[in-house]
Design brief:
Layout lengths: L12 E9 L2 E6 L5 E2 L2 E3 L6 H13 L3 E15 L2 E12 L13 E6 L12 H10 L3
Parallel strand pairs: 1-6
Antiparallel strand pairs: 1-2, 1-4, 2-3, 2-7, 5-6
């Protein structure tokens, strides 16, 4: 009899969007007092691109289209809990007039230079930089 196979790690998936306008990206402030990209949990039978479009509409009232996949990384928001973060570049489909949902404490538009001074998980920075530096 062989030894049981080691169980693969399983993480929840959170799909985030980098939404840029006039050289700035929109961020939301979470309950841990961190700035983060808008987005959220992937629902059963939902594609990642549908997820990010839905989540941004729910969290900020913004209509977007999901573009290119920018990055994937594993984040540990609190000890013992890991989440697979998937980020997409998103284009605004309507004028950028966000409204804040009850899910977050604040939102703001930040240029690349302002990101260095924010409490922002480091894993978001490469995706934001790729989208701000590339065709948006």
């Amino acid at each position: 009899m062989s030894a049981p196979a080691a169980e693969s790690p399983r993480f929840p998936v959170s799909v985030k969007g980098v939404v840029a306008h006039d050289g700035r990206v929109v961020l939301v402030k979470n309950e841990r007092d961190e700035w983060e990209l808008p987005g959220g949990r992937l629902e059963p039978d939902e594609t990642p691109t549908d997820c990010v479009v839905r989540e941004i509409a729910e969290e900020l009232g913004l209509a977007v289209t999901a573009g290119v996949l920018l990055d994937c990384w594993v984040y540990q928001p609190v000890p013992g809990r890991k989440v697979l973060i998937v980020t997409y570049g998103c284009r605004l489909a309507t004028p950028p007039v966000p409204r804040l949902s009850a899910e977050h404490r604040a939102f703001g538009w930040f240029d690349g230079a302002a990101l260095a001074d924010l409490a922002l998980p480091a894993g978001y920075r490469p995706a934001i930089r790729r989208w701000l530096d590339g065709p948006a």
